[in-house]
Structures are given as structure tokens and as C-alpha cells.
Please model this.
Amino acid sequence: MKLGFVVNPIAGMGGSVGLKGTDGELYEEALKRGAKPVAPSKAVRFLQALSEKGFQGVIVAANSVMGCDYLSSSRLRFSCLDLPDRGKSVTSREDTLRVIEVFLKSDVDLIVFVGGDGTARDVLSVAGTKVPILGVPSGVKMYSGVFATSPEVAAEVVVEFERGNISVDQVEVADVDEIKLKEDLLNVRLYGYAVAPVLEGFVVPSKDLVSGSEEEKWGIAKYFIEEYMFPGVLYFLGPGTTTKAIADLLGLKKTLLGVDAIYERKLVGRDLSESEILRLIEKYGRVSLVVSVIGRQGYIFGRGNQQFSARVLRLVKKTDIFVLATHSKLAGIKYLLIDVGDPELELELSGYWRVITGYGEETVKLVLPACCVDKYLSSGGLTQYLKT
Amino acid sequence: MLFRQAKWEEPIVFELSSFSKQTLLIDEEFANEASEALKRIPESLVRSSELKIPNLSEVEVVRHYNRLSQMSYGVDVGPVPLGSCTMKYNPKICEELASDPRVTELHPYQDEEEAQGILEIMYLMQRWLSEITGMDECSLQPPAGAAGEFVGALIIRKYHHDRGLNNKNEMIVPEAAHGSNPASSAMAGFKVVKIPTAPSGETDIEALKSVLSDNTAGLMLTNPNTLGIFESGIVEISDLIHEKSALMYYDGANLNGILGIVRPGDMGFDIVHLNLHKTFAAPHGGGGPGAGAVCVRKELIDYLPVPLVGFDGRSYKLRYDLSRTIGRVSWFYGNIVPIVKSFIYIAALGPALREVAEVSVLNTNYLMSKLRRMRGISLPYGENRWRKHEFVVSFENLLKETGVSAEDVAKALLDRGLHAPTIYFPLIVKEAHMIEVTETETKENIDRLAKAYEEIIELAYRDPQVVKSSPVNTSVKRLDVLVANHPRTLAPTYEHLRRLKSQEV
Model:
């Protein structure tokens, strides 16, 4: 197997000095504050674990600080690209993009990068879904699903992938707008979907066979269409692969990251903005929102689907909002969150919701207001619920 | 304790080569008699094709199966602390009596007058199981636990249907339930609504209230639940369900925690299924036959699968006179063997059945109190509560600190001559070990098990790689679960294996 390996040497430097990232001018700021590189040590740990776990394949690595520097002392078989130039002290986004292009040309089976959400975005922009991607976490923020939990786990995943023991799945690549984050505005954007090897599958006891997530999504979509799609209702489908599966089944081309509208099984709006959604609600009257869970934190509103603003939500009945999620997505998420900057509305929408998790299967989950999770929990009968 | 499992390079029986056809020579006179006898059978009934069975001599067959048994492990070799499966010892007296030809050779169409003994056993079982569960009547038909659940779900469906309540299409199931609960509900045509478990380890009653509606058909519940925790709010739950004219279904796969102490009927349940091959000591885990008796309240007797066994004061008869029956779920009572074994078990214990529950609960809590103090182990949900027949620990901390997972620990137990517990179930507990020692295990054996856990954990912190490469002392080393479960490699029958090999499938 051929593994493409690239390191973003400046990823994660902002964290230790209280910055939320190292994108753009934040890097200079981080240096000024005396930040030290973190990615190199993560890279070394990953490679060491890879060799200990008995990786058999060949590594194609980016040059110098972006890869080869950390390989020279290891016992792994590798070759170096001539990108970026040896003498370069500061690498940039363009270097990453060019390296990934060469990886694709050399037919790598898997790309491993050391970095954060920003790096994930760069890798995705070139690799798309052509090659599976795996992130060794070294960023300040890691909202994307491409990251293993540690360098060692990443090595484990690579070795299992090499042995053909794990499958790939579509995962989100998301990022926070760092400039806004400085002003304490959390604006998570969904950039797209990468293909990543996933080691989150349970070792399944024979009594409970868990099906692959692709099948789960089809089941969810089919059930939604049969059970909850009615004539005369306009359906807004939020971003994500689970909601897209509904459109796929209906033979419609939905945007993956946008909000699209379906009426009488036809697309009547694509990639809608908040004001367009409001206009359509006015025009059609009877509407339903269909969303899935974004990211590992369990947001159903306010992350990646800001088009469904507080103003939109005020016009839609709670019973006309549908949440879709696969079991693997829900596993480990204690409660779902709504963050639309309107505490009153968020509280109104809080409580137990049914999430569609399979064909003919709905799972009850607690939905909480992001504004005031603590207050909400200590105010009602749910205090006991989240004490753990 | 030293443990090395035998290892034979043993092919499957169909692929054993054989040179001798016979080890016992049959005298010509007898051989003629056999062919004469064949001539008396009508031509149309005589097989003309080859039998697809291996052609082996007795000695080869005996050796083959002895070798396989040396490479195998079961309750007759050592403890099997398999949570939610109740692997207790199967008394040999039950085996002996149940293999009596009067049981095994009985033809399903034998005249009832000539099968009074068996019918009496079945009739008494119906009575006893009703008494044990607090129900009014039982059917012994279902051939497995999940089949019993399915029968229960069908009864619920027909019951509502007969009352004109066709909108009742939702079955509520806790997330911690046995995986067969949602499956049985879906098979019976219900929508499954899963509700979460509260941190106390009990069903989240607030969540339950949030989903109740006129569409609620019923609730499937295990009590004590799969965490081994008794639902203290069970009466309130029953009332909530009954207020919606819905039915309470008790998943009695395992009664070990409450046997003779409390009854599902007293908790407000309307339908109960029991796995005779767990609580009542018939063997299981070999693909059957099982016995999943279904018991119901008076109002639902009419819905039971037929035939039941009735008694008119003079003789025992098969009863078909149930006006609303859901029909048959098995052609015959082919599961009579486990039924007889359970009958003997119950008869032998009598009132001491209660002790089964007492001792198994004591054993569970004794082991739990030892394990929960160990490094790397946590006890999620209801931390300060005693458990009943089983308990679930999490190795999440061990995994984080050493990289050794619940699966690795399970494999390392095998290396010490102990069967692993159920792992990764229930799904609400990360890195789960679900342990049930039953009343069968002695204190010494439970101590041995605890010591094995202690050793493995110590090793995990010292040299995790050793644990991760277990088992090494077993006849089969660690399998690749993905390959082992893959349809390209998994063959349930020889015919299927042959097709795989010849690439027909």
C-alpha cells in the first residue's frame, strides 16, 4: 500500500498562546506571543506508532519540515517529494495543495496529514473523495470527522486499513471562521465531505449486527419519504449526507452543503439563503424542515445550517421539524443542541425529540438550548439527567 | 492456573478422507435380509440418488468428534460468564431423562391417548410457568426466545386490531434492550421508538412520557434491565402504558434475578416470554432447539398460538379452541426436549427456585464489588446501586490509558481458561463487559475470574502488546472479526461452503 504523508508544521501553534488557530495573520501573532511548533512531535509519534504496529507499505512524503524530516530516523520505507523546496522555512497553504496534487498523481491509497481543520480543508479541496483522508490531530480546532483521536490511534487506523479490516465512510470537513472567533462568534462552516477510514465501528456481538452507515442512511431516507412526506407540503432539506439521501432516492440533485427545497417531489429551490427560505415559507405556507446532526457536538441548528435562523424557526411548528441521524453519529452524543442566538426560542424548542435513526425506527434524544445548557439543566426535572 | 487448549488440524467431517467403508463386517445373511427388506418398500419411496453424507467408519467419526470437543469450551469445562445469556450448568439428570426414547422417538401424530405422559408434562409446565410469571396461561410453542418475542408482538398487534385501534403502530423499546426487541417489533409491523436510559440506569420516565400517544401499542421491557438494575418505577411505567390502552410486554429472556421473588404479573405486565434454555437450565448456544414459552393475562389467552394442552379432569388433550389465536408458530412441539429438561429442573428444585435468584444475585454483586475497585474499570449508570443477575463494567479508561480494549481483555480471559463475557453490549456503555456468573459458579471460581481480570489489567498497564496479542493458549488464535463475519467467508452449512469454494455464490 502507498501512503501519502504531509505535515502542516505550523498547525496548532495558536492554541498554547490563547489563539483559536493559525490561519492568516494569526500565525504571525502566534509567533509574536512565543508559540512553539506542535505538529512535528505529533508527526514523530504517529510514525513511531506506525512502525511499531507493523505497517508494511511505502510512504510518499512531502519534503523537509512537511514530512521527510520526521522519517529519516524511522525504520519505515519511504521516498521524498521535492516539494516544498528544502530551504523554505515557512510553508504555506499552496505548498499543501501542490503536495496533495502530486500524491494523487502517484496513486496513493490513503493520505495522512498532520494538522487541524484548516489543513483538512486544504487537503479536501484537492483530493475530494478520490482518495481516503485521515488526520493526525494537531490543530487548535478539530470539528471535522477526518481526525483520529490521537497520533497512536491514527497509526492503528492506517494499519487496520492496510490489512483491509476497516471500511471508509463519508465524513464532514468543517471549520470555524477564525477571524470571527477572535470576536467570540462561533461560526462553524461545513466545507464538504471527505472519505475517511473509520474505526468507530463496534466489535459487533453476533446478536446485534450493526449495518454500515451507507445502508443506514438509505433506510432512514426511505422511511422518511414513506412516512412523513405528504403532498402539499414544502420540505427544506438541510446540509449533510443523510438529508441528501432523501433527494437521491427521489432522483433529485441536492446540494450537499446547502439548504434545498422540495415540493411534490421536485426541487423548487437550491442552496437557499435565509431570506429565500423566508420567502418560500410565505409562498407555500405548509412547510417542514429536515436536518441532520452536524459534527461531534450534536448541533441540529446553528452549525453548518445557519440559514435556518431564529426567524425561520419561529415560523415552523416543532412537530414539522425532523431530525435524521445514523446510530454511529448519535453514539456518544449525550444531547443535541440548538444555537440560533435567541435564548427564548431555544428554550421553547428544548426537550425530548424523536430522531429518525433507521427504517421504522425513531430514537428519543434530549435537545438543549446552547445559550444556557447549565441553567436549563438546573431548572427542571432534567437536573438528574446530566449529572453524570 | 495453567491452560493449554488442544490443537488438531481437523478438517470438517465432509472433508475427512476415508479408505475403509466399514469396521464391522456384516454377515452375508444379514446383508441379504437388508436388501430383501428394501424390496418390500414401494419403488417410488426408495431413494435412488446418493446420500450427501460423509462415508466414514465409526472409529473415524468418534475420533473426529472427540478431537473437536477437545478444542471446544463450554459450561461443562469451565465458567461461561456470558451476560444476558445465562450460561448455567445443565444438570445431567435432565439430559438423561430427556433423551429417553419415550421423549425423543415420539411421533408428532401419535394419538393423544397414547401420549398422556408428555402431555401431562406440558400441561404442568403451562401451569408452573404461569405461576412463576404471575400470568394466567402459557403456550410452549415458540422454538426460541426471539420467536417468543415475535409471538408477543403479534398478539399485541391483533389485540389492538380487534378493538378497531389500527392507529396503534408504535412499539416503545429502551435503548438498552436486547437487540431482538426492536427486531421482533419491526417484524410484527410496528414502528420502533427507542427511549434512553437515565444515569440511574433505569428507563428515563420523562422521555417515556414524551413519546406516549394514541399511537402507542406497547412497551417491551426487561426487568431487571440489561444493566442488571431493577426498574424501581415499573408500576408507574405500567400505569402510564395502560392509560394509553397499550400493553406491557416483558422480555423474560432471563429470570435469574427475580425467580420466586417478584413476578412480571405483579409489576403490571400483560405478556411475558421466557427462555427455558436460560433460566431453566436447558442447554443453549448451539442453534437450538430452544424453548421460548409465552405467557399472558386472562384477557389475552384467546390470542395464544395453538395448540395448548388442556385437561378435562380425566385426560390431557391438545386444545385448538382459541377464537382469536394468532395461529401456529411451529408445526409441532419439536422443542419438547428442552421443555422436558426444564420441567425436571423446576420439579427438582421446587420452592428452592427462589434460591437460584438469591445466589445468582449474591454472586453478581460479590464479583462486581471486586471488579469496580480495579484500575481502568468504571461502572457506568446507577453507580451506587446493587445489581441483580448481571452487571456491566466499562473498560473505557483502560482503553484511553493503555490502548487495551474491552475486546482485548475478553481475548486475554480466554487465554486463562475462562470464557469471555458478552462484550460491547448494551450499546449504551462504551467498551462494555456484561458479566453474569449465575448461581452455578462457586466462590472459588468467581475469585479466579476476578484474579484473571486483575492480572490482565496489571499486564495492560505494564505491557499492553501482550494483552493485545491474546489469545495464544487456545486452539484458535485471534480471528479477524471482519473476515470471519463476512458473507464471502462465513458458511453456515457445508452446502454453502461448497458453493463458496466452487465460486457458485
User: Anything to note?
Assistant: Residues 245 and 295 of chain B are 19 Å apart (CA to CA).
